[in-house]
Amino acid sequence: MSLRTLLIALLLSISLPVTAATEIVPLSNRTSADLLPVAQNFIGKDGTVSAYGNQLIVNAEPEKIQALRALLAQLDTPAKRLLITVDTNENNQQSNTHIITYSTASRDGGIQQIQASEGVPALIQVGQSVPLTTTQPDTYGRPQNQTQYRNVTQGFYVTASVTGETVHLSISTNRDRMSQERPDVVNVQSTDTTVSGRLGEWITLAGINRQTQADKQGATRTYSTQGRDDLTLRVKVESLN
User: According to the UniProt entry, where is the signal peptide (predicted)?
Assistant: First the structure.
């Protein structure tokens, strides 16, 4: 081959665009919904990525596809099995002065555990059905008591992901509680939060401190009450594999 012919061939190879290829990349452990955003971000404007079932269809330059395969091989690993522990510690105290004096101190709460896969929401919930009685007039105007049962629960939706020794938690909590002031009222609290911490260590989610005061006067007695609620929520995540 003459030098002139070789130069022409080199110029043609430089000027011609690289032909894009279409390949199917099967996934073994993670779902296509999990890894499709990562693949699309990696390919960017150099090609396209779509999902079909649990596999990715990639259209890009062969070198780009090979690089994507290497990246997916690091990400398409079995999801970690996690043990999620929730500790609910609640203290209630009441003290009263003046004519009537009494005090109560109780501690309720506990630890709930559940196993879950990384990235999959887990629900931990406890509760009970409580009768709520209301008074309404009947057709003749006479007061009638009606009793209905209401579920009073406290629970947590926890979604955990692990990076090295750090765990990231997306948490939605709900906490129902019978009102101390009105027995026919259920107080409802809910929160959504994202926190991070180390595997195997307690992560404090919330500390709720509430004080209430009520005064009542009657024909024969006068008294005052002061109540205090303290609620602490903690979560610990441990890897099982």
Answer: 1-20
Domains of the chain, start order: 19-75 (3.30.1370.120), 81-212+227-240 (no CATH)
pLDDT digits (tens, 9 = 90+) for 161-183: 888 899 999 888 777 776 667 76
pLDDT tens digit string along 61-102? 999 999 999 999 998 988 889 999 888 765 544 333 322 222
Residue 140 corresponds to which tokens in the numbers above?
Answer: 């003749």
Which residues make Cβ contacts (< 8 Å) with residue 38, sequence separation at least 6? 71, 72, 75
The pTM assigned to this predicted structure is 0.53
Tokens of 14: 């430089």
CA–CA separation, 24 and 65 (whole Å): 10
